[in-house]
Amino acid sequence: MIVGRKQEIKKLNELYSNQSSELVALYGRRRVGKTFLIDEVFEEKITFRHSGLSPVEVEESDEYDGKSRMKDQLKHFYRSLKEAGLKNVEIPESWLDAFYLLEDFLEEKSDKKNRLLVFIDEIQWLDTPKSGFMTGFEAFWNGWACHRKNVMVIVCGSSSSWIIDKLINNHGGLYGRVTCEMKLSPFTLKECEEYFKSRDFVISRYDIIQAYMMVGGIPFYLNYFSREMSLAQNIEAVFFAPDAPLKYEFDRLFNSLFANSEVMKKIVLSLNEKSCGFTRQELLKKTGENDCGEFSKFLNALISGGFIMRYISFGSGKRNELFKLSDPFCIFYLKFVKGNLGKRVKWTSLESTHQVITWRGLAYENVCFNHIEQIKTALGIGDVSTEESLWSKRGDEDDKGTQIDLIIKRKDNVVNMCEIKFLSNLFSVNKEYHFVLEDRREMLKPMIPKKAVVHSTLITTYGLKHNEYSGDFIKLVTMEDLFCF
Questions:
Q1: How far apart are CA 118 and CA 49, in angstroms?
Q2: Within 10 Å of residue 450's Cβ, how many Cβ atoms?
Q3: Domains with residue ranges and CATH for the chain
Q4: Residue 77 CB contacts under 8 Å (≥ 6 apart), including other chains
Q5: In the chain, which end has fewer C-beta atoms inside a 10 angstrom radius, N or C?
Q6: SS3 of 387, please?
Q7: How many CA atoms lie within 13 A of 54 on its CB side?
Q8: Cβ distance 290 to 352 under 8 Å?
Q9: Percent of the chain that is helix, strand, coil (3-state, to 5)
Q10: For the whole model, what pTM was predicted?
Q11: Highest mean pLDDT: which range of 375-379, 403-407, 438-442
């Protein structure tokens, strides 16, 4: 059973039904369910399928160079051809030869009536250094596949940056050849709930949000949760037990996605130190990397992979843009797992600690950033053009420092100043907090157009307790609203 993915399924079926050649580039974070989607939609319709060999699974040594990796990838491709039915051929020595063999195989299978569907999974792993893979694939598509109306090729990759740079934005022979690009995003909270229901998993929305804070909307990770355990027991089993499946996932994930995995991890580790993030210059200083175009490529690869986000603090210019760690799994792993490897951690004993309470508050802000459209719908502004950001101001001798969790600047002359609170009960505004809100509104006014007004907005779990100060909030969004779609 496929949870969600309705638009993607509809589009894939439309492309399969077309009487034209199609080159589909499907990408998204690893473990997000790309292969599962293709298998479920095109069950028994795939003419030829192949998946690249993971660089994590091979033994790295001085002897295992790029040429050896290419040789293994070609041998594996040859094996896929044999399993599909190609006979009496030898292992190809180059990617040109490999794709010629694929053409021969597809010619044998073609009767001009039935669709020929080719699925190449984790394509970025095939593109080993100096292998000529892109030359072979380009020759296959431009010289053969694109001229046949019954051919559909789906290439799939967990390295979003590779798919975007090498295929979608290709400036060579594959320029403009991709007929459909499709990004598969993690589940929303609503889809996480549907996933748990599909497994007869009884869990509250409060706990679904906490599960999302720990693993994001990644189906592969959610699959490790057992319906026989509480959320706390699941967390211990998935992250902290001696045989916990995600205990070493952070390193495996980055090593499999990026050729420069150590640099990528260094950037992520640096961003984890500050919840509101760092500027590019601050990151360069913290990581010790050189200020060059390569560093920008690293940042863009992490952004396209869904690990970090780029934003401009409210009222600042583009030159002051910030980079913020936004992947829930990475945030939780670096906060609680990385430093406890080899230790048996009891999550039930940590739940009430200040460290966890603080993390929950910041993690819920991250959940809200990943559900902006749901928040806009709850505010009745789903069709209004908006800009979202957060604002952090450092204090000095003259001014108090402050932070606004989320600012939604709207084209209809309203600015939603959002306070985000993750609580196990109703939020109550006391006199002290009343004045804090007033101060924040006053600090915000000089930074917005004179014709605009500020609407104090509360985004919390269960709602607002009514008292003499509850009127400070004009709008209220609860966790129920985050599950609207």
A1: 6
A2: 7
A3: 6-183 (3.40.50.300), 189-247+341-364 (no CATH), 250-334 (1.10.10.10), 378-483 (3.40.1350.10)
A4: 50, 92, 98, 126
A5: N
A6: strand
A7: 10
A8: no
A9: 45, 15, 40
A10: 0.92
A11: 375-379
